[in-house]
Amino acid sequence: MATMAAQITGSADRVPLRLKLQRVERRRKLKAFLLVLPLLLFILTTFVLPIGRMIFNAVHEDTLLRLMPRTMSELRGWDGKDLPDEGVYAALAADLKQSWADKTAAEIGKRMNYELPGTRSKVTSSARKVSTLSTDTYKDALIEIDPLWARHEVWSLLKRGSSAYTAYYLLRSVDLQYGPDSQIVASPPENAIFRHIFLLTLGISISVTFATLVLGFPVAYLLASLPAKYSNLLMIMVVLPFWTSVLVRTTAWVVLLQQHGLVNEALMALHILSQPAELIFNRVGTIVAMTHIQLPFTLLPIYSVMKTISPTYVRAARSLGAGPFYAFWKIYFPQTLPGMAAGCLLTFILCLGYYITPALVGGPQDQMVSYFVAHYTNEELNWGMASALGAILLTATLILYYVFNKLVGTDRMKLG
Amino acid sequence: MLGTQAAFVKFSEVQKTYDGETLVVKNLNLDIAQGEFLTMLGPSGSGKTTTLMMLAGFEMPTQGWILLEGRAIETTPPHKRNIGMVFQNYALFPHMTVEENLAFPLKVRKLGRAEIEIKIRRALDMVRLGTYAKRRPAQLSGGQQQRVALARALVFDPKLVLMDEPLGALDKQLREQMQLEIKHIHEDLGVTVIYVTHDQSEALTMSDRIAVFNDGVIQQLATPAELYERPQNAFVAQFIGENNQLTGKVIAMDGGVCTVDVPGLGNVQALPINVEGVDRPTTLSLRPERVKLNPVPGSYSNIVSAHVKELIYLGDHVRIRASVAQQDDFVVKLPNSEGVAQVGPGELIRLGWKTEDCRALDRL
Amino acid sequence: MSKALRITGAWSVMALVAGALPLAQPVLASDQLTITSFGGAGQMATRKGQIEPFAKKTGIKITEDEYGGEVSKIRAMVESKSVSWDLVVADATAASQMCAEGIIERIDWNKLGLDRAKFVGADQQDCGVPENLYATVLAYDKDTLPTGPTTIADLFDLRRFPGKRGLYKRPFGNIEWALIADGVPIKDVYKVLRTPAGIERAFNKLDTIKKNVVWWETGAQAPQLLADRQVVMTSAWNGRIYDAVKNSGKHFQIMWHAQELGLNVWVMPKGGQHLDTAYKFLTFAVSPAQQAEPTRYMAYGPANKEANAHVDPAILPDLPSAPDHMAGALLVDTSFWAENGDELRQRFTAWLVK
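Above: the input entities. Below: the structure tokens describing the complete assembly.
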């Protein structure tokens, strides 16, 4: 009755009422926005911008454009068939001279060396020699200095450099590269590792997720069904790893699992083994240590969902004639699925980005994508490659998340 | 009341303790006949739910026997007892549709597909939810969920159905409607129902017999009318219906009548139901509707004067709260058939009642 | 009240003056140096034999830093114009590469006042002052292998020497050893390696022990692997093994066959703030008497040929330069690595993960 009355009054002078509502709503929205604003700015500056910048780095590459402006502009007219003509070589000589004076020859060499290994020293030595060159026939002179400049693929590479954007890093991240005529070809087998690395990352993440699920589910069940005084103690033991640094925990695994570590010594003392087993610096060590770290992430969402499942469901099933296992499997287990989905997704996505643990307890064959991101960032200083690998990993993660969402539905997940 | 041989369900000297110190159920003996609607009524912690759970198989008796159709079942696991059960919060499986919920007990029993469908249809029609088969429990109202739970407990034709406060979560109107529905289903199917509740009006409405539980002991086992009219002790009198209590001391016993000295009121004539003898304390129980306002002098064996404290108009009847024997909570209930009594707060009135309406019970 | 104000004012003035001091005395700032080396026993020897005596003599304050030999770190410093290292001990190969890139100073031998010809390998180094010769050798523990390996072929002999081996997680040295073990004469190693087939042959040989290798990344890890019995033998820098034997009482043994002689040189990243002081230090540190000093602590041979005369004769047999050891020695070809290092490192990284 009350609402009807309000509607009738509303329809009499509808416009002012709606305006009033809007005004109130706007004020409310503004207030809500102001509350999130600090966090929004924080996320923008510390998360969105750097990641955007990183993805940009994966395709943006203007070293050659910046350091060899004359060559780049001359090359615009090159048809890409035969070697370029004298004008281009003259521009190259001028750019190299300039680069030697500016000490940027190494940067050019480094950039070219990415795509054509072995060119770095040739570029820098060419630059040094060109700096004292005086001639009119630059083409012959440069080829004389280093046959590098007579190679067609070098010119294809320089031609590609006249654009500030390159797909090279992304191609390389999936074991493709540019051929001599700028066509896309497969990387040579001795350098083609990244598809393998991505699959390996996926495989290890799936294994760890599965291991945490198998180990975590029974514990979560026990936690959810024990009386509080026992479950609190058990819970502390479960979350204890959270309070220790990942580095410390990982190092502890080294102590335990190494060739003459506690586990091997114990097994040998018990005459279960005659030779120490290889438990660390390989796949076994990697998965064991990662599973240990990830266990709470899988377990806690499952536990929090189990906590909400009333024991009367199983009782009801029992009263309806189901045996203990049947009741568990048909009634209890399906209700834990949202928690399992959430826990597994969390662990899986975290695993995709693992770096320090495989680096410490894995062998060379157990390194995941993040290791190579770090390798290219810290050791090779090849940020283009680091960015490309990072961008692909991020995209793959988002796609997997999307697929998962379609299959399970995040709205049905419960993180607790 | 019932012969041992005829008992469908029999509790014999059953005891239950959880902590090894206090007994939750003390020496329970109870026979239930086939087709009976028996309610276990009592406050929370009185042992009624524990008794039900022992029958369902979710709790083991610490001592004693439970017989179903003459067979001891204490060690039979719950899923082999073939007892239907309705839970307080319905316990419908949230990940299954209504239909799947109903099919569950039938699939467990490995019935054929066609038979399952027939039984589901019949059960849904019985609770008038024929069109809701494909819905999930979350898409149903509380009353509908309760009906599904009821249908599920009955779909596999158990001979015994246990109901653990099944209507506790419903609002008053729906609850009263469901009470009648359950009662009718019980009558139609002839199934034995054991019903647990703490709501006395629910118990009175539905039951053939009521077992009033308190402190792990059955205080009285009787039909609703018997319980209300003739409570055997002060707890039952207090727990079932409204009740005025006066405490005093027995000063004389004479055949079917005893005289009780109530301080501040003088001698009161009452029926000695549960008194220990002369000079012993007792509690007098008196229903508010059996008290007469301003009776003709001499027409009632007990007539006292009282001060009106409050007058409450309730439509079909009027309640007067009065001060009797220094107590302010003496209630008189007057039907509104003869016009509202013309009394106001502070007025001095007289109240009268018959000896047979005043029961002398044990001291609380 | 006014007294309190005066005191506050006086403090403020003093604080201002104190803050301005570093600006007012730029001369003082140049009298300090940051010297970076590979850490561990090697850096300790440099510290005791050269850095501390220099600091004592001149009063110049010296700060030390450590690194793992990465060219990229120095390149990043020079490119970002934030050079905080004045002097760095670098491997000769890395020095050649950095010199070609123009990120380290060319050496003015006149300014040093020393004879370039007196230094081993100085003719190949335009930007480095040779400091010492170190050897990458194969080491083992006599307690676990009483009859140890005698030639580098034994490193690849899993039948006679079962168990894990430690190797440096870089291509340098490993591919040379692979070829020698595969039968290439030591003098022809780099000739073969300059052909694609030679590289292939080296990696194929490495493949035969790949599953049995524990890879180490810092110099200290190699003796540690031996001590933990994680490996039965390991490649190591001879100085690290010498240190473990001398200072930790380990029974480690060096197998000198096919020792790979490397040269450590002093380099100065371009853009350092204290170039003159750095030169002053170099003149002092690589003088014959002073360069012999670190051999008291570390078994690396001095690169200044005249310094040998100052070395304690007792320690000579432990130096890579001892005549007995030089017979089967391989001199690392810095120009080969400067040209092919990047490519081989990339290939090595890919080879590792497969």
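Note for the figure: Chain B has two domains: 9-234, 245-361.
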